[in-house]
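hey can u check if this looks right to u? its 157 residues, i copy pasted from the old doc so theres a chance i mangled smth
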Amino acid sequence: MIQPDWKSSYCKFRQMLSTDLKTIVHIERLAYEFPWTEGIFRDCIRFGYQCWVLEKICNYIQGYGIMLLASKEAHIINICVRPELQGHGLSRQILDHLIELAKLMDAQTVFLEVRTSNERALKLYLSTGFCEIGLRCGYYPAANGNREDGLVLAKEL
């Protein structure tokens, strides 16, 4: 399959649809050792979470982000970019989009968790104004049945 050059044409955000889930789950499995299931994504859509995809005009999904909004708080629960497109600023675009949505919906604070080993994501979050506020010991599954800590980050809007 020929994949379009991610730089060559206009990108846009749109809401995630249930018809996107086959592609989303495929990207998730490529990107993560412990991927979300289709059922988790389906529930996020069904329960009204902010579920967005970043795509090219030709409907090529490059990445996605999911955020829950409640009580003046936004919780970013997933940001993912196709592995072959990582390192080109697409995660920052998704993060910025979710933060703007949170502002429009009158959220005062945005929260997220990140694996302690995910240095690339941690660098992105810190560079956009997130601060470490806590540690969740054994929060994430890890290889060989182990668990990995998660850093809790927050950003005031």
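The radius of gyration is 15 Å.
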